[in-house]
Amino acid sequence: MVGAFGTGLVVGLSVAIFVGYAAIAVLETAARDGLGSGLSAGLGIATADTLWAAVAAAGTVVNRLFMPWSGHLNWAAVAVLAGLVVFAVRKLVSDAAGVSVIWAPSPAPRVYGAYLAATAREPVTVVYFLTLTLGVLPYYRAIEWAVFVAGVFLASMAWQAVMAAIGARRGRVLSPRTRRRVYLLDIVLLSVFMVFVAATALGVGP
């Protein structure tokens, strides 16, 4: 159970860092509307991450049926990640800002809802958790599933809270150059994750 919680913390922090432009949006929301709005935005993102984590962990039950083809599933995950990296590079090249900030209305519930909806349909988030289902997460019993999901929420929310605090203290939005650097970091981290999944498929991983 401790292992499931630790894995949840790592997964939650990883997806929060991978989707760096979401963190930028939280930071800039807090800079514009204050800490409360930034925390509401972060809570929306963390909630979406948690929902997808719950789906991914539950999906491992189905994944067990395909255990004889686990190697193929791992390589399918690598292919999906490679396509996502190519998509991200194209977006970085074509978009000077590299990120779209959600200028949601100020009331906290509306900010929360806007970021929850946007994150739930964000391709990087969806593909990341799909990849976990295909070839990374082990099978979890009910209690381990709950502990894993809790770990994802705590880690994701902690990261978003830090971003909100930084934004509220900073009081101004980031420059386009800084946004592009964060987006480039996303691409690098996605590439590292893709290599990790490939290593797992080859039997090199731990």
Care to describe what's here?
With 206 residues, the protein is mainly alpha-helical. The protein is 81% helix and 0% strand. It is built from 8 helices and no strands. The protein has helices at residues 2-18, 20-33, 35-63, 70-94, 108-120, 123-135, 142-170, 176-202. Helix 1 crosses helix 3. The longest helix is centred in the first third of the chain and has 29 residues, at 35-63. It is globular.
Short structural description:
By secondary structure, the chain is mainly α. The chain has helices at residues 2-18, 20-33, 35-63, 70-94, 108-120, 123-135, 142-170, 176-202. The mean pLDDT is 77.
Sum up the structure in keywords:
mainly alpha; globular; single chain; 206 residues
Helix content: over 70%
Could you state the order of secondary-structure elements as H and E?
HHHHHHHH
Secondary-structure-derived class: mainly alpha
User: How many beta-strand runs?
Assistant: 0
Summed up, the helix count is: 8
End-to-end Cα distance:
19 Å
Shape: globular
Percent in strands: under 5%
Q: In angstroms, what is the radius of gyration? A: 17 Å
Low-pLDDT ranges: none
Mean pLDDT: 77
Reported for the largest beta sheet, the result is: none
How would you summarize the topology of this molecule?
Layout: H1 2-18, H2 20-33, H3 35-63, H4 70-94, H5 108-120, H6 123-135, H7 142-170, H8 176-202
